[in-house]
UniProtKB/TrEMBL annotation, chain A:
Alphabetical list of SUPFAM superfamilies matching this protein: MoaD/ThiS (SSF54285)
Name the UniProt record assigns to this protein: MoaD/ThiS family protein
Pfam families named among the record's database cross-references: ThiS
InterPro entries assigned to the protein according to its UniProt record, in alphabetical order: Beta-grasp_dom_sf, Mopterin_synth/thiamin_S_b, ThiS/MoaD-like
From TrEMBL, chain B:
Source species taxonomy: Bacteria, Pseudomonadati, Pseudomonadota, Betaproteobacteria, Rhodocyclales
Highest taxon, organism lineage: Bacteria
Name by which UniProt lists this protein: Aldehyde ferredoxin oxidoreductase
Domain named Aldehyde ferredoxin oxidoreductase N-terminal: residues: 3-206
Keyword Ribosomal protein appears in the UniProt entry: no
GO MF entry, a single one: metal ion binding
Similarity annotation: Belongs to the AOR/FOR family.
Co-factor requirement: tungstopterin; [4Fe-4S] cluster
Pfam families named in the record: AFOR_C, AFOR_N
Keyword Metal-binding attached: yes
Keywords: 4Fe-4S, Iron, Iron-sulfur, Metal-binding, Oxidoreductase
């Protein structure tokens, strides 16, 4: 299935080839979880601070169990803040 | 003791400068800066005063930690009655000006009356005098600072000034210090302009004295700096990406107000984000961002220094904008960009430079342009009126309207009155995205429900810095809450509002709160200031400051009807994203908020609440 994978700020370096800006479209196996993507692209766990799927927050404890669906958009940031 | 115990009172009508002792009983109850200056203001002016009349006063104030080695201890506050809102105005700025006031031996400066001619105040330690500013009137903030330093032959003088916007009493004019830091919101620059006060120039060589327990203070401030350095947000995220990193976050969440809040996601958010500022441009091979920068005493350094593309249409024939200068922060980038549908990063930086140069709040200005563009697309405003076609997304219109508003040309004079007056004049008051007449910042109340309540109840009109529940609802600081629900938000908003009042009153930056809680600030105040500064006392003080501001607003004629959001946010659901189908639940949250505050259903503090808080 196709999933949009987005890594922002200092995490952009972990995006694979073929990226457009901060996103890349990838193939993922059905049943893949958010945690699987984080592992697959070797994003350091501590750096994967804020994880959104289709804009919804996924708590650290839920990453291993949140199963992705076709067309989902996964976005990850390191620790950041603003104002 | 933290304080210099000395106030400078400047009567601009009479041309006098007098020293007086700081009211230490009030310092014990309101600490400093926002709290203490507001106490002075509400004790000295009629709440019904016309904000631009000589009877209004304007106070520049430091806190007890300003100028000390506490991290971020460079803040000062400008307190007055605001012309944009008719409510209390309280604008906080960093840079180096606040610390210099402390070094010169003063805690605050109270300006009263109106000078018969343009003047600036020069303070060199104990010496204070009003000087003729006839030749400075008409100059920008940048030219004014340079001119004053030159004539005084002192490059270390710290200057706060107004530009053309303040002189013309643009209702969202700000006061700019150190070239690109600003007391930005609520039109404090218009009040300064109404007083014929062009600038305040400070030179202090006394340092900070009177810290209660110097050894304990050095130890605790060093310890707390380490907390900031070790925290991934304040130690890494903010220095590298600045506040601008939120652009993509808030857009992904469907909470980025776009095109005057018609939409909640901006298709070009990525082009105006922190990441875009790091990208090398095809034109010159350089990124817009040059480096980060810190205010006095700050160990976070979130500030942006940027260089505009010299070949961009806005500056190609204007080399004075080519150098490195203050860059886009998140709020400015949103207001000048997404709020208008403009995705041209260089055009945004041009507008940002003009706001710094001539002293305008980019949030209120940008958001007002959003209303102008919507009225243009509706056919209510025309090219003939505006002098330019102004559809959403037009970088040309943004650039030209910024120039016109900053310099008071043509339709720019109407834009300078803010969106509330503009939309009312042209028959569409509901299109003004404001609370109490002040424009929203960069978070949509439909996608971040707590912020809707924070905006509605903010004492200075719509504002993110009175109660930044984004920290919790988006970033999980100190705990993660669901941004889409209203449950628990009244309590969250109240807690943020009261705690923020203490951070502000201390003279430190609210951004420390991404790593510090009040429990980290308390021992720093305790070591610096005489008296008891327990957590209980600070918590009560934050609540006292909030209620004092509310009492002033009520006396100024504001009521619970002013604690409201524009109809768009309550009736037009978000079209996409996680908040799709949602409107703001502000009306559901308000009664609970009032009850938690100890206010009547009409939003007035009860006698019992006032007694409990010593008001």
């Amino acid at each position: 299935m196709r999933v949009v994978f987005k890594l922002f700020a200092s995490l952009a370096d972990f995006l694979p080839a073929g990226r457009r800006g901060n996103l890349v479209e990838i193939e993922a196996d059905p049943g893949s979880t958010v945690g699987d993507l984080i592992t697959r692209y070797q994003v350091p766990e501590k750096k994967a601070h804020l994880v959104l799927v289709n804009g919804h927050y996924i708590a650290p404890a839920g990453r291993a169990t949140h199963v992705l669906q076709e067309g989902d958009e996964v976005a990850i940031w390191p620790p950041i803040a603003g104002g | 003791m933290g304080w210099n115990r000395k106030v400078l009172r400047v009567n601009l009508t009479e041309g006098t400068c007098k020293a007086e002792p700081l009211n230490m009983q009030w310092a014990d109850e309101y600490l400093g800066s926002r709290g203490l200056a507001t106490k002075y203001l509400v004790s000295e002016i009629d709440p019904m005063v016309d904000p631009l009349a000589p009877e209004n006063k304007m106070i520049m104030s430091t806190g007890p930690l300003t100028g000390t080695m506490a991290s971020t201890g460079g803040r000062y506050t400008v307190v007055t009655k605001g012309p944009l809102t008719g409510a209390i105005a309280c604008s906080n700025s960093g840079g180096f000006f606040g610390a210099e006031m402390k070094f010169a031996g003063w805690d605050m400066i109270i300006f009263e009356g109106r000078s018969p001619k343009p003047v600036y105040l020069y303070v060199e330690n104990d010496k204070a005098e009003l000087k003729d500013a006839a030749d400075l009137w008409g100059k920008s903030c940048w030219e004014t600072e340079e001119s004053i330093k030159h004539r005084l032959q002192d490059p270390l003088v710290r200057v706060s000034s107004i530009g053309a916007a303040g002189e013309n009493q643009v209702l969202f004019a700000c006061i700019v210090n150190d070239l690109h830091r600003a007391a930005g919101r609520s039109g404090v620059g218009a009040v300064m302009g109404s007083k014929n006060l062009k600038a305040v120039a400070l030179r202090g060589t006394k340092g900070v004295s009177g810290i209660k327990d110097m050894k304990a203070f050095m130890k605790i401030t060093t310890e707390k700096k380490k907390v900031l350095a070790d925290n991934a947000v304040t130690g890494e995220g903010l220095p590298k990406y600045g506040t601008q990193v939120l652009m993509n976050v808030i857009n992904e969440m469907g909470a980025l107000p776009t095109r005057n809040h018609k939409d909640v996601q901006f298709e070009s958010a990525g082009k105006i984000s922190a990441e875009a500022m790091h990208e090398k441009r095809p034109t010159d091979g350089k990124p817009q961002l040059v480096t980060n920068a810190a205010c006095f005493g700050c160990t976070i350094a979130c500030g942006r220094i940027a260089e505009i593309d010299k070949s961009h249409f806005t500056v190609v024939n204007n080399p004075k904008y080519w150098g490195a200068s203050g860059g886009l922060e998140y709020e400015a980038a949103w207001a000048l960009g997404a709020a208008n549908g403009v995705g041209d990063l260089e055009a945004l930086q041009y507008a940002n430079l003009l706001c710094n140069e001539q002293g305008m709040d980019p949030i209120s200005f940008g958001a007002t342009i959003g209303a102008v563009m919507e009225l243009y697309e509706m056919g209510v405003l025309t090219k003939e009126q505006l002098g330019i076609d102004a559809p959403f997304g037009s970088a040309e219109a943004l650039a030209r309207l910024t120039e016109m508003t900053a310099l008071g040309e043509g339709f720019g004079k109407e834009i300078g009155q803010g969106s509330k007056r503009l939309c009312a004049k042209y028959g569409h008051p509901g299109l003004s995205m404001t609370v109490k007449g002040q424009e929203f910042p960069a978070y949509d109340a439909r996608g971040i429900q707590g912020m809707g309540l924070a905006y509605a109840t903010s004492n200075r009109g719509a504002c993110h810095l009175r109660g930044y529940t984004v920290a919790s609802e988006v970033l999980g600081i100190p705990v993660k809450t669901d941004p889409l629900v209203t449950e628990g938000k009244p309590e969250l908003v109240k807690a943020f509002q009261d705690a923020t009042a203490v951070f502000d009153a201390a003279g430190i930056c609210v951004f420390t709160s991404f790593a510090w809680t009040l429990a980290d600030v308390q021992p720093q105040i305790e070591a610096a200031c005489e008296g008891d500064w327990s957590m209980e006392k600070l918590n009560a003080m934050g609540e006292r400051i909030w209620n004092m501001e509310r009492l002033f607003n009520n006396a100024a004629g504001l009521t619970n009807k002013d604690d409201d959001l524009p109809p768009r946010l309550k009736t037009e659901p978000a079209k996409v994203g996680p908040a799709k189908g949602l409107v703001s639940g502000v009306e559901k949250m308000l009664p609970e908020y009032y009850a938690l505050r100890g206010w009547t259903p009409e939003g007035k503090p009860t006698a019992e609440t006032l007694e409990r808080l010593g008001l």
